[in-house]
Amino acid sequence: MTPGPDPDGATPLADEERAGLLADWIATREELNAVEQENVRAALAYLASPRRRPTVDKVLDDAYLRDVHTRMFAQVWQWAGTYRTTERNIGIDPWQVPMAVRDLVQDARYWLAPDTTWITPDEALCKLHHRLVAIHPFPNGNGRLARAYTDLLARAAGRPLFTWGARGDLQRATLARDAYLAALRGLDRTPDDRQALAALVAFARS
Length: 206
Prior knowledge:
Blueprint: H1 15-18, H2 29-47, H3 56-59, H4 62-73, H5 97-111, H6 121-135, H7 142-156, H8 164-167, H9 175-189, H10 194-204
Helix pairs in contact: 2-4, 5-6, 6-7, 6-10, 9-10
């Protein structure tokens, strides 16, 4: 496959990860994006089915998170649902990923608890979203996974789905992607700042 230029914020794959491409006829980045998009669309339709409305407790489980990634990318990548083992230009060290994800889902149970008053549900959901992107648990698809997982959790918690910049194309170099990355990077710099968190909430609800 000829990868083509990666948009700002994208993480290039290692050679061994590229070898996990199941659709060996793919030759360009555009073809890869199209195949991934179709897999993601089908997975989200399945997960959003009214018959599959999980509880908050079920969603806030690292096994559920891995299952979501598997469903989103299993038709494209052999390693779908498997935590990365290689370094990235963003994200924590690979050996830290499993524990970091488990810590995150446990923290989110506290943030979304009915008696929690120091953070709003939207802030809690976007705080989880930011931290999941920052961990970068999988070789590819982390932004798409984080948005889908956040929406699944919002739905389980009885909150409206996020619109993520009016569902603009966040996979390509667009103004919506620029705004999204700016909000994430603002929280990277000051993760405990309520204004930085509010900026991500504002984008997610725009």
